[in-house]
């Protein structure tokens, strides 16, 4: 009788340990997934809130031939504050990625909604049609001009 | 006595209870995270929709642009002809592609302290310009713009 109850006790403990292991693994997996969903939703909502607009007047000269710079003005027309650091703004002129860029917020400290950033892009452009493509937080803008 | 306590039924129901509690905890975490995430994204979408509606309701019209060579002043008058209220602070003036916010005068319907630019009101801007500009562009807060050639 004693050996039966001892083996039952062992089975009881073993089943609890296994159940705890299964529940633990399951909870851990789900909590990792929840963390992922949380991070992803933050990212997606930022992307949805981001909206920029190139407000430069293409009818006026955009390219300065003497300093070889393209100056464009970009307005934050979205609902979130963006980072105006050039590391977070992807700039392509005629399909070529540009790194020689200075970015300045013209009407404030940070690039809040409604604020305008001036981008001065160093690029040696031949006379003709050109296009600038900006990518901020997944939002793409194309600006076309003539030199 | 001991044999009655540690029956196999206890093992099964005990481990089932632990697994159920685990599943319950896991799903409560998952539900909270996905509900918060969903709400965050739908908030963002509705903010963007509001913005789009505002943009649709915005109409600007340049009433007058004149340059006075005598006192080097460029005067711009813009009328809010839309159905939404705009912000005078959020409105940008570009003179020959140069951003100008150093207004000598900025009035909305005769009031120079207000930021609200309501439908039907006229925004009056004066900036210093040493030579006659060619093009003037006004960009409103939602991004709707008008240009004028002098």
Question: Can you give a write-up of this model?
Answer:
The complex is a heterodimer of chains A (147) and B (150). Chain A is 33% helix and 33% strand. With 147 residues, chain A is of the alpha+beta class. Chain A is rod-shaped and about 100 Å long. The mean pLDDT of chain A is 92. With 150 residues, chain B is an alpha+beta fold. A 4-stranded antiparallel beta sheet of chain B has the order 1-2-8-6, with no helix packed on it. A 4-stranded antiparallel beta sheet of chain B has the order 5-4-9-10, with no helix packed on it. In chain B, strands 3-7 form a two-stranded antiparallel sheet. The longest helix of chain B is centred in the first third of the chain and has 49 residues, at 8-56. The N and C termini of chain B lie far apart (104 Å). The interface between A and B is large, with 54 and 56 residues.
How do the helices and strands line up, and which of them pair or pack?
The complex is a heterodimer of chains A (147) and B (150).
Chain A: H1 2-49, E1 52-54, E2 63-64, E3 69-76, E4 89-93, E5 96-97, E6 101-105, E7 116-122, E8 129-136, E9 139-146
Antiparallel strand pairs in A: 1-3, 2-3, 3-7, 4-5, 4-8, 6-7, 8-9
Chain B: H1 2-5, H2 8-56, E1 60-68, E2 73-80, E3 86-87, E4 92-95, E5 98-100, E6 105-108, E7 116-117, E8 122-128, E9 135-139, E10 145-149
Antiparallel strand pairs in B: 1-2, 2-8, 3-7, 4-5, 4-9, 6-8, 9-10
